[in-house]
Amino acid sequence: MSAAVDTCVDLGGIALRNPVLTASGTFGYGTEFAPFLDLTTIGGFVAKSLTVEPRTGNLPNRIHETPSGMLNAIGLENVGVDAFIAEKLPEIPDGVPVVASVFGTAPSEYVEVCKRLTGVPKVAGIEINASCPHVKAGGIEFGQNAELLAGLVRECRAATSLPLLVKLSPNVTRIADMARVAEAEGADGLAMINTLQALDVDLATRRPVLRNVLGGLSGPAILPVALRMVWQASQSVAIPICGIGGISTAEDAIKFLLCGATAVQVGTASYLNPMAAGEVAAGIEAWCAEQGVAAVRDLVGGLELP
Ligand SMILES: Cc1cc2nc3c(=O)[nH]c(=O)nc-3n(C[C@H](O)[C@H](O)[C@H](O)COP(=O)(O)O)c2cc1C
Question: For 9-58+76-196+218-299, CATH number?
């Protein structure tokens, strides 16, 4: 019998018992999956992105299955930050680090949500969803423009003392540049990647499959793209990275750790298997024990280059 594996990691000041969290928007408010997954067996939970006011999101059809993936244009439906704090947070078991995802259509909206979350028990950190269109800048995502991203991170940093993760948009030419911008403006860590902008067509109607026309692609199809981006970002910044994109097994997650991620998030996989995040966490520990790896954090950045 091998010695116990140390699975603890520190994600920019958020202490996690193991490196596996659930990804924003794919795990509701943490309670919906209670019959299937004990949240205390994973590292933490990232809530659906929150706005100042509740939002109903886009009209259907807003989800579509694609080869090895899924296209969605939910439109950031959420209950609003106040209802989250009053009604959803109390349902989450004690001892589960909750990372609250924040978004808005102007920096002032992000700032307001950050302020309301700061000091709330159970909220261990904030994740800034930078994949949101900036209304005044003509709908370009904050995370697609270095200046917009810098301004957003600066304002959010000033608004909260909580650990601040910046979730990068992958819909850019040079992801390392965006990683450096977030780090320079005071982010404690990065989360990456959000969905890749995509389109699919229904031949019977000759229309886009989604009413919104464009959607975000997630699931196993995006895993190698996400690994590439995490690796490039990890070469460019010193802050920790939470790797996201197509993870459904422990092996997938370990690839992210080797490419420089300190922790990971499981997203679309939870739709197929609501126990996925727990299985990934247990699988990483088992793999380390089998390989003689004493601490999960020893894997981080261990990619052997040719
Ligand atoms: C249905 C759905 C809703 C999502 N909602 C959000 C959201 O509210 N905020 C956010 O930052 N990311 C959101 N995402 C993106 C995921 O958190 C994740 O970054 C992405 O799906 C890639 O990971 P995956 O391939 O493991 O799903 C959503 C993804 C899906 C599939």
Answer: 3.20.20.70
CA 17 to CA 39: how far, in whole Å? 11
Domain coordinates in residue numbering, the chain: 9-58+76-196+218-299
Return the structure tokens found at 72: 């969605």
**Atom 14 of ligand 1 has which residue's CA nearest to it?**
25
Q: Is the pLDDT of residue 138 over 90?
A: no
Q: What is the pLDDT of residue 1?
A: 47
> 139: pLDDT confidence band, cut at 50, 70 and 90?
confident
Residues with C-beta less than 6 Å from any ligand 1 atom:
23-26, 48-49, 70, 72, 74, 76, 101, 129, 167, 194-195, 218-219, 222, 244-247, 266-269
Q: Which atom of ligand 1 is nearest to the CA of 193?
A: 19
| pTM for the model | 0.98
